[in-house]
């Protein structure tokens, strides 16, 4: 590489220069020596809000039916409550498991508890980086960083980053993507 | 209107581009108008008898001449529309890109930069072939609808255009060496040796041609063909016996499968693979002869596969991922380098695309199992997931590429150059976690080839991810360095 990394754009936690295979390894569980960073816990709150909005109609509908039509329909109410409770439980367990780490060569995103995935996107493969935030996410001061490579299935997504972290990450990724860019 | 169509276009800076050129005057008619004319002619020929025949039964109720006038006006309108469409379609080459303007009411201006050209095809649909015309399709890496089509030019002009475009694309690649592909000996080597002013077909050497008899056989040796051979007699029997219930579902099924087989036959017939400097040329088609040119260094991933019925004749099929080409189911033959071939032919194509792929590694990948040939395979822990193929499922990291292989009954092998891996994914479900295995996916650009190693031991999967990141970035760095 001829271009040095822009020092102002480099995070203090990231080692520069090529990585020897003996540097901290990516692991499915635990930190393995990498600086895994969690997403904002407010992401769970935001998802609870969405869940609440989605659940309120079926719940009211089932309640109305149970009260005015047949007592048997209390079963439907119970069903809705169980489903909502289960989804809430899954959200509560999943959000803390979303974490990401930057190494010298790649951005790694880990997700999921029961079904685990690790996505590794090399900086040199980045085509562009999106930072999005909807009204709800903005209310919580969060944004989603989406990575796009030349393949639509390979992009990673980090939801629920605090806005300033997301902006900094986008700038770092842009700088590294530029300096390590390779053709298709 | 004056004779300078440029006056209708926004002013262009004088960038040394070539003057605007027009397509062949017959193009608009061939593109659609001719269908209308044919319908009209058919209707007229049906009516001639009733109009001028013995039993005069005037369908126009005495307004015959008005009807004739209307027909003439419609015809004139079609011709005028075609003429306007032709007047307003023009293309030109500038030093950096090719641009095409079309449309009178809804104007479209499409341009493709030379350094974004992935492949240049020539297509010859049946009707155009009658008039000696071809279309040039410029494929760029911009998703589904990002092709620029010059339809139609005369055969010779189309050939010249393709040669020129490929040459320009290659030049712009050389001017931007950081775009150059990694470890691509074929590309780096030939860029100095090939002359820059290449005439048309003469330099191409034929790598192989697949006899049509083998294409027919290979299509018969497939699941759909077997179903067809069972369903067609069943359909006939149920027609004869008069079982409408059976016909209702057998009929459409037979037609659909038969249509699919026929389509495959018309696409793969007359298959020829030619090699010319740093690019491959694929020619195929029964009625619609297509010529696709793929620069070797634009190939992102290669797959060699063999279905169960093809085991017995020992046939293999080779498909590739090229950014921007294929992807949709409709034209997936553009990605086929070898529709059906013997082992030696498959190896010849493989080593042509990946010059540095050792043959023994390729053979081990195609037919072998276990660690022979440098393969890291799934262990016994993967047995519940792959009772048959766990010994075969695995990968080998060669100096320039990763080779993944899978399948015992349906064998397939994928080859991806290190520098071409877009990203890596490891996934593990609950059942996989209990067995201590995980699946790795090496993501390539969209296309038929999806390299992946499933159910590796967790430690091996993580090691593959860690090491591959280093290997890939090394390869990209090497590629970025000007040679």
Automatic annotation (TrEMBL), chain B:
Q: Which Pfam families match?
A: bPH_2
So which domain of life are we looking at?
Bacteria
Give the region (Disordered) as residue ranges: 172-200
Residue intervals passing through the bilayer? 28-44, 64-86, 219-240, 246-262
Q: Does the keyword Transmembrane helix apply?
A: yes
Q: Which UniProt keywords apply?
A: Membrane, Transmembrane, Transmembrane helix
The residues covered by the YdbS-like PH domain are: 86-164, 276-350, 390-466
Biased composition, class Polar residues, residue ranges? 189-198
Q: Which PANTHER family match?
A: UPF0699 TRANSMEMBRANE PROTEIN YDBS, UPF0699 TRANSMEMBRANE PROTEIN YDBT
What this protein is called in its record is PH domain-containing protein
- The organism named in the record is Knoellia koreensis
């Amino acid at each position: 590489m001829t271009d040095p990394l822009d020092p102002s754009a480099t995070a203090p936690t990231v080692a520069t220069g090529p990585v020897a295979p003996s540097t901290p390894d990516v692991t499915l569980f635990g930190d393995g020596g990498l600086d895994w960073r969690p997403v904002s816990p407010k992401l769970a709150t935001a998802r609870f809000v969405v869940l609440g909005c989605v659940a309120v109609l079926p719940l009211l509908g089932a309640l109305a039916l149970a009260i005015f039509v047949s007592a048997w329909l209390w079963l439907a109410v119970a069903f809705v409550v169980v489903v909502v409770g289960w989804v809430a439980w899954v959200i509560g367990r999943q959000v803390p498991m979303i974490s990401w780490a930057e190494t010298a060569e790649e951005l790694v995103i880990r997700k999921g508890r029961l079904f685990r995935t690790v996505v590794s996107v090399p900086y040199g493969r980045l085509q562009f980086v999106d930072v999005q935030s909807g009204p709800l996410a903005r209310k919580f001061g969060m944004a989603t960083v989406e990575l796009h490579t030349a393949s639509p299935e390979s992009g990673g997504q980090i939801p629920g980053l605090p806005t300033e972290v997301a902006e900094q990450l986008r700038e770092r990724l842009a700088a590294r993507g530029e300096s390590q860019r390779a053709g298709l | 209107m004056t004779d300078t169509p440029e006056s209708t276009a926004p002013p262009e800076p004088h960038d040394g581009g070539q003057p605007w050129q027009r397509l062949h005057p017959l193009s608009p008619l061939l593109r659609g108008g001719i269908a209308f004319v044919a319908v009209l002619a058919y209707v007229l020929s049906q009516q001639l008898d009733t109009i001028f025949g013995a039993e005069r039964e005037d369908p126009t109720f005495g307004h015959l001449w008005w009807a004739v006038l209307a027909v003439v006006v419609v015809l004139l309108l079609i011709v005028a529309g075609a003429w306007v469409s032709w007047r307003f379609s023009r293309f030109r080459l500038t030093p950096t890109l090719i641009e095409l303007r079309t449309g009178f009411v809804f104007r479209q201006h499409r341009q493709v930069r030379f350094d974004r050209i992935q492949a240049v095809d020539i297509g010859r649909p049946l009707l155009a072939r009658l008039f000696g015309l071809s279309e040039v399709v410029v494929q760029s890496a911009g998703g589904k609808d990002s092709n620029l089509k010059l339809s139609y030019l005369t055969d010779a002009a189309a050939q010249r255009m393709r040669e020129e475009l490929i040459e320009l694309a290659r030049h712009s690649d050389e001017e931007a060496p950081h775009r150059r592909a990694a470890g691509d000996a074929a590309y780096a080597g030939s860029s100095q040796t090939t002359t820059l002013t290449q005439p048309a077909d003469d330099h191409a050497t034929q790598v192989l041609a697949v006899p049509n008899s083998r294409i027919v056989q290979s299509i018969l040796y497939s699941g759909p063909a077997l179903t067809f051979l069972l369903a067609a007699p069943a359909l006939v029997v149920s027609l004869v016996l008069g079982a409408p219930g059976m016909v209702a579902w057998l009929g459409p099924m037979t037609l659909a499968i038969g249509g699919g087989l026929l389509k495959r036959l018309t696409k793969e017939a007359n298959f020829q693979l030619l090699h010319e400097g740093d690019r491959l040329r694929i020619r195929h088609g029964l009625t619609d002869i297509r010529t696709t040119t793929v620069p070797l260094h634009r190939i992102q991933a290669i797959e060699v596969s063999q279905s169960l019925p093809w085991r017995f004749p020992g046939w293999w099929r080779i498909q590739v991922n090229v950014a921007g080409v294929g992807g949709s189911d409709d034209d997936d033959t553009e990605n086929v380098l070898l529709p059906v071939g013997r082992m030696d032919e498959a190896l010849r194509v493989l080593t042509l695309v990946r010059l540095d792929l050792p043959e023994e590694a390729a053979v081990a990948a195609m037919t072998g199992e276990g660690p022979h040939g440098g393969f890291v395979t799934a262990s016994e822990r993967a047995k519940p997931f792959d009772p048959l193929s766990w010994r075969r499922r695995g990968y080998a990291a060669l100096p320039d590429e990763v080779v993944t292989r899978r399948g015992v009954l349906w064998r397939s092998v994928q080859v991806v150059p290190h520098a071409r891996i877009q990203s890596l994914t490891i996934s593990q479900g609950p059942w996989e976690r209990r067995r201590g295995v995980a699946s790795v996916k090496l993501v390539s650009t969209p296309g038929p080839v999806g390299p992946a190693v499933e159910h590796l031991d967790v430690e091996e999967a993580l090691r593959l991810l860690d090491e591959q990141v280093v290997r890939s970035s090394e390869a990209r760095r090497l590629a970025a360095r000007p040679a």
